[in-house]
Amino acid sequence: MTLNRVEASAKIVQRYFSQPLPKLPQGFPNGWMSAKDLTVLYNAGLNAKGDVLEVGPWLGRSTTAIAAGLRQRETDGGTSLKYDSVDFGITSADEWVERFDEPFNLSKDKGRVAQAVYHPGGTIAVLIQNLLANDLLKYVTNIIRGDFLDSPISRKYSLIFCDATHDDKEIHRHMPRLAELAAPGCVLVFDDVVTEERADLVCGYLNVSDRFMTRAVYPDRKARCKLLVVETQT
Ligand SMILES: C[S@@+](CC[C@H](N)C(=O)[O-])C[C@H]1O[C@@H](n2cnc3c(N)ncnc32)[C@H](O)[C@@H]1O
User: How far is the centre of ligand 1, averaged over its atoms, from the C-alpha of 98 (Å)?
Assistant: First the structure.
């Protein structure tokens, strides 16, 4: 039993933590993901078997990690992959309230949220700027502004990162479409899914072959690795 756990951890580390995050000229944009979280996304991009989908890039912290992985993958001789990224792309306080059903707080995250929302073009414009700054924009095929459920996307994806399954409501709202978009053998990474109950809820929509929580490998609160990674059956 203990040996299995150790073996499982070794497998996870090998697949999702083996390559360190690269140094980038402008660093990683502001956001809420830890260096360990970003390392998982970077390695997932690096080893992607096919096209990539992201739901919820915000200002591109996660996007930067995935795109940097895809860039390194190409440098290593891999074919270029499609990478579609979808976000509400908030441009006003009213839109914030409408989308998130919560008051818009000007001082949230030391005012950085308001700064991005009130930037000309809103958060999507900041996302594009942040990707350009690290010369990574060309690795993102489509940046779509709007509700992911209304997005005109029809590919099957081999890597999906979703930062929009934070509670039961979001899980039930987003998982049916994500399950449709997942190719066989897809790797799906979910941020902030840290309880077994929520992981069960997410996995209930998928044909799971393997699943794990990154905090099982890095339980230290300071390391803050809070992802659920699911691999589906081939
Ligand atoms: C926690 S933030 C993402 C943070 C980002 N991944 C990072 O690394 O900093 C969640 C994002 O999901 C987006 N989002 C939530 N539900 C969505 C939906 N149905 N369609 C498109 N975007 C959505 C929000 O607009 C928000 O930008």
Answer: 14
Q: Which atom of ligand 1 is nearest to the CA of 29?
A: 9
Using CA atoms, how far residue 117 sits from 54, 97, 104, 141, in Å, is 20, 12, 10, 23
Q: Is any ligand 1 atom within 6 A of the Cβ of residue 226? A: no
How far apart are alpha carbons 13 and 214 in whole angstroms? 9
- Residue 168 · residue 112 · CB < 8 Å: no
* Mutate-to-test residue for ligand 1 from 86, 88, 108, highest number of ligand atoms within 8 A of CB: 88
pLDDT tier at 96, thresholds 50, 70, 90: very high
> What digits encode the pLDDT tens for the residues 13-55?
889 999 999 999 999 999 999 999 999 999 999 999 999 999 9
Q: How far is CA 88 from CA 8, 14, 85, 160, in A?
A: 36, 34, 11, 17
User: Which of 39, 54, 55 gets mutated to test ligand 1 (max ligand atoms within 8 A of its CB)?
Assistant: 55
The CA angle 194-109-166, to the nearest 5 degrees, is 25
pTM as predicted: 0.96
Alpha carbons 122 and 133: distance in angstroms, whole number? 17
Three-state DSSP class for residue 184 = strand
d(CA 134, CA 151): 27
In 82-155, alpha helices (H): 93-100, 112-117, 122-133
Domain at 2-89+122-232, CATH class: alpha beta
Atom of ligand 1 nearest to the CA of 59: 9
